[in-house]
From TrEMBL:
SUPFAM superfamilies: Tubulin C-terminal domain-like (SSF55307), Tubulin nucleotide-binding domain-like (SSF52490). It comes from Macaca fascicularis (Crab-eating macaque). PANTHER family: TUBULIN. Keywords: Cytoplasm, Cytoskeleton, GTP-binding, Isopeptide bond, Magnesium, Metal-binding, Microtubule, Nucleotide-binding. Its main location: cytoplasm. It is found in: Cytoplasm, Cytoskeleton. Dimer of alpha and beta chains. A typical microtubule is a hollow water-filled tube with an outer diameter of 25 nm and an inner diameter of 15 nM. Alpha-beta heterodimers associate head-to-tail to form protofilaments running lengthwise along the microtubule wall with the beta-tubulin subunit facing the microtubule plus end conferring a structural polarity. Microtubules usually have 13 protofilaments but different protofilament numbers can be found in some organisms and specialized cells. Residues 106-242 form the Tubulin/FtsZ 2-layer sandwich domain. Pfam families: Tubulin (PF00091), Tubulin_C (PF03953). This is Tubulin/FtsZ 2-layer sandwich domain-containing protein. The lineage of its organism: Eukaryota, Metazoa, Chordata, Craniata, Vertebrata. InterPro entries: Beta_tubulin, Tub_FtsZ_C, Tubulin, Tubulin/FtsZ-like_C, Tubulin/FtsZ_2-layer-sand-dom, Tubulin/FtsZ_GTPase_sf, Tubulin_C, Tubulin_FtsZ_GTPase. One of its GO terms (molecular function) is GTPase activity.
Length: 309
């Protein structure tokens, strides 16, 4: 399910969950951003939607409007990036769902994704990334290796959520590659990345997963899509919660909701649930000892030793 959190909340998610209890419900949820969204009640809708997703979804891919906007304007160097936002988001969604649509050397369905990517029941929000992201004019002249592709996939500039992944550890990571490539090389580089990174939760076994599809995306010879469960995603919720608190304290635009029959307690309950979620992410971050290392998963230029066999 693809939807915008700022444009309206999702009570139908619970209805669908009750109607189809044996189905996996994954969502691509676009969070509001002041740069793109013009909805004054976006924080209300976002908090209500996140509250529903916590209780009813099995996995949520968080896409912040601010991050694709920055990618289009800075990395892709588009003077008017609004027309390219949907293209960028659709490329990421296509990468995530690759294994559902094409055969490959290794495949991962929704059940495997929900099982491997959600180590704790309520921490079901993923931060996707996509590579390569280069200027349109120079794309045809660049031939990326597996090492460079992995480097870009974990670069903070390629993440589809406007938060810094270096501010939290990775609980689980999934990488989906599209092209005919050596899976032995992919597995070796991902394993070395995990061993040499100070941002991975090393006490969780098998928390790095890989999948591959032989069919490349249209217009590209090779691509990679990352799906990450990271503690840094609480920054997104914190930013929305701060705006929600300011508005709710003043009862701003609250009559729009009470006029439609909503009780004020529903907003209070949603606020409490999201705050508890943020506290759980923080608690998990505090209790996850990380290996100290001079190398970093998210450096712009990784030392070659991270990828050596």
């Amino acid at each position: 399910m693809a939807h915008s959190l700022g444009g309206g909340w999702v009570p139908f998610c619970s209805v669908r969950c009750r109607k189809y209890p044996d189905r996996i419900i994954n969502t691509f949820s676009v969070l509001p951003s002041p740069k793109v969204s013009d909805s004054v009640v976006g924080p209300y809708n976002a908090i209500l939607s996140i509250h529903q997703l916590i209780e009813n979804a099995h996995g949520t891919f968080c896409i912040d409007n601010k991050a694709p906007y920055n990618i289009c304007s800075r990395t892709l160097q588009r003077p008017t990036p609004y027309g390219d936002l949907n293209h960028l988001v659709s490329a990421t969604m296509s990468g995530v769902t690759t294994c559902l649509r094409f055969p490959g050397q290794l495949n991962a369905d929704l059940h495997k994704l929900a099982k491997n990517m959600v180590p704790f029941p309520r921490l079901l929000f993923f931060m996707p990334s996509f590579a390569p992201l280069t200027n349109w004019g120079s794309r045809q002249y660049q031939a990326l290796t597996v090492v460079e592709l992995i480097q870009q996939m974990f670069d903070a500039k390629n993440v589809m959520a406007a938060c810094d992944p270096r501010h939290g550890c990775y609980l689980t990571v999934a990488a989906i590659f599209r092209d005919s490539m050596s899976m032995k090389e992919v597995d070796e580089q991902m394993l070395n990345l995990q061993k040499n990174s100070s941002h991975c939760a090393h006490q969780l076994p098998h928390n790095v997963q890989t999948a591959a599809c032989d069919t490349p995306p249209k217009g590209l010879e090779i691509s990679a899509t990352g799906i990450n469960t990271t503690m840094a995603i609480r920054e997104l919720f914190k930013r929305i919660m701060e705006k929600f608190t300011v508005m709710f304290r003043c009862k701003a635009f609250l009559h729009w909701y009470t006029y439609e029959g909503m009780d004020e307690m529903e907003l209070i309950e949603a606020e409490s649930n999201v705050k508890n979620l943020m506290a759980e992410y923080q608690q998990c971050q505090d209790t996850m000892p990380r290996r100290r290392s001079s190398s970093s998963l998210l450096r712009r230029r990784w030392p070659r030793s991270c990828f050596s066999g």
